[in-house]
Amino acid sequence: MLSFRKKDGAEPKLDLSVEKLTLTNTITIEALIQTLLKNNVIKQEELLDEIKKMRKSTTVLKDEVRDAGTTDSK
Predict the structure, then answer these.
(1) 51 within domain boundaries
(2) Would residue 59 count as lying in a domain?
(3) 56 within domain boundaries
(4) Is 11 exposed, middle or buried (0-12, 13-18, 19+ CB in 10 A)?
(5) What DSSP state is assigned to residue 4?
(6) Domain-embedded: residue 62
(7) Which of 48, 52, 27 is nearest to 37 (CA)?
(8) Domain count, the chain
(9) d(Cα 61, Cα 64) in Å, to the nearest integer?
């Protein structure tokens, strides 16, 4: 696990909004994906297939996905 400390060794204060935390996580995931693709650890098709499988199996986003689909049809 990555650990970030100030130069004086003190624990940093975390002043992150949900938006900042989401953006930070998104950038981190994108960097990881790009590194895996660049080093031929995973193929883009494999990644997309895995994302599709995870979307089908998760219950967290099902309502949001359904609601987004109905919004588009209005």
Answers:
(1) yes
(2) yes
(3) yes
(4) exposed
(5) -
(6) yes
(7) 48
(8) 1
(9) 5
